[in-house]
Amino acid sequence: MRKIFYVVAGLLIVSGRMSITAQQAVVDTTNVYELNEVVVSAVQARRETPVAFRNVSAAELRENNTGQSLPYLFTQTPSVVVTSDGGNGVGYVSMRVRGTDAGRINFTVDGVPVNDSESHGVFWVNMPDFASSVESIQIQRGAGTSTNGAAAFGATVAMQTQRPRLEPYFEASSAAGSYGTFAHTVRGGTGLIGNHFVFDARYSNVQTDGYIERARANMSSYYASAAYYNGGTMLKFQTFGSSEVSYQAWNGVDSARLRTNRRYNSCGKYTDENGVTRFYDNQTDNYWQHHYHLLATQRLTDALNLNVTLHYTDGHGYYEDYKAGAKYAAYKLPNFKGADGKEQKRTDLVRRKWLQNDFYGALARLTYTRNRLQAVWGASINNYTGDHFGRVLWMKTVEAMPQPDYEYYRSRGEKLDYNTFLKASYRLSNALSAYADLQYRGIDYRITGTDDKAGDIDVHRTFSFFNPKAGLSYERGGSHAYASFAVAHREPNRKNFTENGPTAQPTYETLYDYEAGYEYTGRAFHLGANLYYMDYDNQLVLTGKISEIGEALTSNIKDSYRMGVELSGGLRLAPWLDWSGNVTLSSNKIRNFTEYVNTYQGGKEQPQTVNELGTTDIAFSPNLTFGSTFDVHWRGFTAALMSSYVGRQYLDNTSARERSIDPYFLSDLRVGYAFHPSFMKEIALDVSVRNLFNAEYESGGYIYDTFINDGKRVNQLNYFAQATRNFMARLTLKF
Fold first, then answer.
1. In 3D, which of 189, 181, 185 has the Cα closest to residue 8?
2. pLDDT in the model for residue 551
3. What residues are paired with 474 via a beta bridge?
4. How much is the pTM?
5. C-beta of residue 616 within 8 angstroms of C-beta of residue 589
6. pLDDT class of 251 with cuts at 50, 70, 90
7. Do strands 105-109 and 155-161 pair parallel, antiparallel, or not at all (unpaired)?
8. Which of 328, 452, 562, 576 stands the most exposed, by the fewest C-beta atoms within 10 Å?
9. Are 125 and 92 in contact (CB under 8 A)?
10. Over the stretch 321-345, which tens digit does the pLDDT of each residue have?
11. Residue 105 is part of a domain; what is its CATH number?
12. What would the 3-class secondary structure string for 84-112 be?
């Protein structure tokens, strides 16, 4: 694959340099760019849209993109918190906005849903260096505007792939740094050929040994597009994808060991026949994913544009792990009798848990802009099928293996997701605009087969959601004020169904989102404030209850909310020095929360202890976050000092300090210099120092178990320790 893309990139450059003609000098650049903007205009907010959002430009993405996964480029966005399994921001990472996880954030690429249809999650390990092919990213906080795919219960992240470049180009960058981290990217394009065609391609490879022991990762990705432009017509095909192999680090570090060896990784641990502790070498996650988009945009009139997108995503992969002391019964096998006639209930084994899925669909968007009215109609239909199955590759008691690659469970998830929306902004006066947004979303979800934990499963649920939104926006001079109200609904994910057992089935969640904000932009400064109140009905949370199949039960709780204020601002301190910053102060609560705790007395299981805790904090929802950036640009020299603070995060919904993540403060420093020699466009060198002040901190964690034993509360906590001071250097060549 790597050789193929080096060749492709080279061919693109050669063909591009041969294609430049005098005719290209009269190309309507604005027309080409506007046709691309139509693709995302249906899901991205505009300045007069009454929602809180931040646009991240391609320049900002390129400047900060040194190999870490995409969420690490959002750390200076209000209310955003990121964490990494491997500790250095490469591989498995996750992000939260206003305390809500990725499963409650809507992600799209050119309007196409990215969230997994069943888990609702987004796995950035499958999109390494995607930032190198992105033109812009808009992060809407709250319910946002109507879009496609998963419900936006905390934020919407709308990504737009790169615009066409009318001139040929070639770029190569290589970065190297701490913990054996290397990131290499080559990208190029033909420019406009024959006044109609543009071709672009990229190949990237990111490798690391990880901060956490053995948390190595090897990830490759590509992007390629071919576009045709003719007057008011754009036809574009793009494909992007990746392959990844990463050693598992998702267990975290237990709280006791955190003080003595914060880099410890328990994944793959076993004891050999000589009693020596070892770690299984192939305790890895392996996944391949390929996306295909066909986009057509047609300007029907000066006021009316139509965009249609067809898409298909193929994904398949597995994780392999060594299970020490596994019960035969858990793998649907009888206990084994050895040569001595003694019955054995457990053995060591190696298993693979597979996922093979297909996701495809169609989107249509019609945009009308005339005088005071801007309206968008959109519709989409998407279908998902996912096969989940597990196989035992090896068993210590060879005689107990019924067959090679013994399959012990298989199930299929099928999901049909369709929606239509109409949203419009109407300028009531020169300063005042009204916004309305109506969406209908329907879901048909089925799970059949056998599950590794639940046994036989047969789930069939349908949902119909109506999501209205409305608001007002006032803009005069440099001032902009807005207020809005939105309703959003979210269906349960796969685990909510499979791990709750056949009787305790969950229902959907509802969000009522109230937002109001003010922004002022002056010649040398800008400031903004956004107030929000997010009222949840039937939010799904962990309560400590155990389902009838022995798994942690997610229960719908009636009453919970998030409320806060987000402040942001920026100031030009000198022609060469800028400062920007943000602060979020919030309160995130569950009313009338009841906790259920497993209880044992004298080694015997007792009824669960029930604790009526009243109003408690929602897990992973810090009451205070802030970010600050000092940015220097002087001739070819650049520097940035980026700092962030994240307040205390509770690991469960009990507000128990002993089950929480301590607050932390971080600073990163980046310095660089760019040369512009006569024989090429640019040579740039930059060096980043992450965690400048060498803080020892944890940004994520979970409760492995908590119970009461003989009257004493026992907490088994695991944390995701993050890297101490580390470095990354990057060289970029542009032709």
1. 189
2. 57
3. 432, 481
4. 0.92
5. yes
6. very high
7. parallel
8. 576
9. yes
10. 999 999 999 999 999 988 788 899 9
11. 2.40.170.20
12. ECCCCCCCCEEEEECCECHHHEEEEECCE
- Locus of tokens 């080096």: 6
Structure tokens belonging to residue 397: 């008691």
CA distances from residue 193 to 149, 189, 224 in whole angstroms, order as listed = 35, 10, 16
For residue 349, with 0-12 CB atoms within 10 Å meaning exposed, 13-18 middle and 19 or more buried, which class applies? buried
Q: How far is CA 196 from CA 145, 238, 680, in A?
A: 34, 16, 26
Question: How far is Cα 338 from Cα 623, in angstroms, rounded to an integer?
Answer: 57
pLDDT of residue 505: 82
Give the tokens for residue 89.
């921001």
> Are 638 and 672 a contacting pair, CB within 8 Å?
yes
Residue 513's beta-bridge partner residues? Answer: 486, 534
DSSP 669-701: EEEEEEE--TTSSEEEEEEEEESTT----EEEE
Comparing C-alpha atoms, which of 319, 300, 334, 164 is closest to residue 236? 164
Contacts by residues 308-311 (CB-CB < 8 Å, ≥ 24 positions apart): 308/362, 308/363, 308/364, 308/365, 309/39, 309/110, 309/111, 309/112, 309/362, 309/363, 309/364, 310/360, 310/361, 310/362, 311/112, 311/359, 311/360, 311/361, 311/362, 311/363
Whether the predicted pLDDT of 20 surpasses 60:
no
Contact 280, 251 (CB under 8 A): no
Report the number of distinct structural domains present in the chain: 1
Selection from 120, 124, 110 nearest residue 158 by Cα: 110
pLDDT digits (tens, 9 = 90+) for 364-422: 999 999 999 999 999 999 999 999 999 999 999 888 889 999 999 999 999 999 999 99
Q: Could you tell me the residue range of the domain that residue 400 belongs to?
A: 2-734
Residue type, position 175, single letter? A
